[in-house]
Design goal:
mainly alpha, Arc Repressor Mutant, subunit A, 5 helices, about 0% strand
């Protein structure tokens, strides 16, 4: 199925900007982009792995991405981290 170009642009504008991510989400995203596991991120930030998982879920929603790799790539491309 082909997307209409204006529909695609609309999706792109709906993605999160730097100000829409919390400071903690940006910290988690930076460590995620560095390849750290949830457990390592939790240890680095002195929070539980479950909290890290929750932050990552919020990041996926805000960035409208399906995976850690896509989130990291998007964040680097858009200068979010």
């Amino acid at each position: 199925m082909r997307r209409h170009p204006s529909a695609w642009q609309g999706e792109q504008t709906m993605r999160a900007t730097k100000s829409q991510l919390t400071d903690r989400e940006r910290e988690v995203l930076c460590l995620l982009a560095a390849g750290q596991t949830d457990r390592k991120i939790a240890e680095s930030l002195t929070i539980s792995p479950r909290t890290v998982n929750r932050h990552i879920g919020n990041i996926f929603i805000k960035l409208d991405v399906p995976s850690r790799v896509t989130a990291a790539a998007h964040a680097i491309r858009k200068g979010l981290i």
